[in-house]
Each structure stands twice: as C-alpha cells, then as structure tokens.
Amino acid sequence: MGSVPKLTPADAVAAVRNPLAFIADRWTPDPRTVRRAALAALVMSVVIVVTGGAVRLTGSGLGCPTWPECTDGSLTPTNALSYHSAIEFTNRMLTYVLCAAVGWAIIAARSEKPHRRSLTRLGWAQFWIVMGNAILGGIVVLVGLNPYTVAAHFLLATALITVAAVMWQRTREGDGRPRLLVGKAVQQLVWALVAVSSLLIAAGTVVTGAGPHPGDSGEVERIDVSWSGVAELHAVFAWIVVSLTFALWFFLKGVGAPQGPRDRVRDLFLILLGQGVIGYVQYFTHLPTVLVGLHMFGSCLVWIGVLRVLLSLRERAEVSADVPVQSYDAVSASIAGPK
Description:
two-stranded antiparallel ribbon, 67% helix
C-alpha cells in the first residue's frame, strides 16, 4: 500500500478554490468507474420517483406540513406528528443520497482522462435539475399538494431521468461525430415514438391529478376532469406506443438493421407488455396502492427504454488524432442505413 501524500498549505488553498480540479489532478478513474457513477445517478433518479410515489400513495404528502423545515421550528419530525411525517421526511432525506450520486458522477466525469467536457456538463445539468425540483417539491407542500404542481414535480423528475440516461449512454461511447446506423425513415418513426411516449407520460400525470390518491387524507384539490375518461385517453396513448414499438421492431428486422437498435426495441416492447398488464389490472381493481407504485416504477422504465431506442440509432467512436471519424449522411436514400 503506497504512502498518502502530504497536504501542503498550497494544496489546501487549491482544494478550496477548485475542489474538482484538485481531485482531477490526483485521481484518474477507470472507465468502468465513470460508467458505474453515471448508472448510480440514473438509478437514484428512478428511486426518488418511486419513493415520491410512495409518499403520495400512503397519504403522507403533508406529513411534514411546511418546508424547508418539517414542522415549524424543527427540521425533523417531532413526537406530535404521525408516521406520515417519517415517510415524507425519509423521502426528503433521499434527496441528499441523490445529490451524492450525482456528485459522484460529476467528480468521476471531471477526473476522467482525457477530460470529456460533455460528460461533466451532463452531470451538472442533473445537479441543477435536482436543485430545481427540490425547490418545486417545497412549493408543492406549501400550496397543499396542488395537483398541477405535483404534475410539474413529476415531469421535472422525468427530465432528470432523461439527462441521467443520456449521460450513462455517453460514458459507454466516444466523443467522435455521431455515425447514424439507420436511415431517415427509421429516425422519423423513432421520433414519433418519443413524441407519443411524452404524451403518454403527460396524460399519466393528469390521471394522477384526477385520481383517488391525492397524497394526503385531508382536503386536497384535484384536477376537475373525468378520471375514467383521462385514464382511457392514457390507455390510447399506451396502445399507440406499443403499436409503434411493434412496427419498429418488424421494420428493423425486415431491412436488416444493426443488432443494437433491434435489441433496444425488443427490450422496450417487453417493458411495455409488463407495464400494460399492471396498468389494466390496477384499473379494474380500483387502483390498489401497490400496483400504482409498480406502475410508476414501470413508467420510468418505459421512458428509459424509449430513450435507449433513440440513442441506439447512432454510435460514437473514440476521437483519434490520426484517423478522422466518418459520419453517415442521414439524408441517404437507404432505408436501413449502412449495413
């Protein structure tokens, strides 16, 4: 085991002025470490959504009735509060775990050699989304779980998952120019899939805002629409997503597209099947809390699956000083792209 280098006063000053540069000068992580750090941030971004759902499903949304304190004069739950306070407070504390995961991803990306500025920016984007959503979460509490703020809270969490998923993908590829693996027709079909999936998620927030799980046992405002009608619209979007995925898989297979995009579409289709089963069972069993929680987890997996399909349409090689990276013309007449 090597000796630990002594920390000089100059080192201490440098660490205070720019801690990321200080660490990067003294640590070079293995590429697997960077990938694992990015994956940890992605996993925690999903965990915080699921635990936030648990807060709502247990009626603990106002377990800590104020923010940033849990109750007036106390940052933590007091004996006078119920177990709902413990649930809400635990979810708040998990935000710090999420911040630690994102911080690890930023440090690992900043310390990688050579330094990839794109990865560091994606890490910082996650950090600022977390900070923004933490403030929005406080507003949700202060306005008594207004359903529109709750929906915005979930959508911002989905944005966090998006950036985390992109960063995780970028850690597994180089910084060369993107080389498209499919033709324009496939790209358009995938972008249609992304668009309808976005509508599916947005409709899901309306179902939540109008449904029977307001997040607290007290009087909570609900979105004044027919819950069953919005749920049926949500199901229509779901069927469109399933149909697009099914058609995309057959199309890619028929034109001999690369294995990567085909595998990602297959994975998405399997996730959609599981999510669809859960969705219909919870609908006909009047939304039991366990199934609603599983459905929220499934919605995160569906969105990650859609993003992985989109990101699988191109590849990035390592940047080389000697051999320029060739890019494929997206306007080519080829349907499947290069073989």
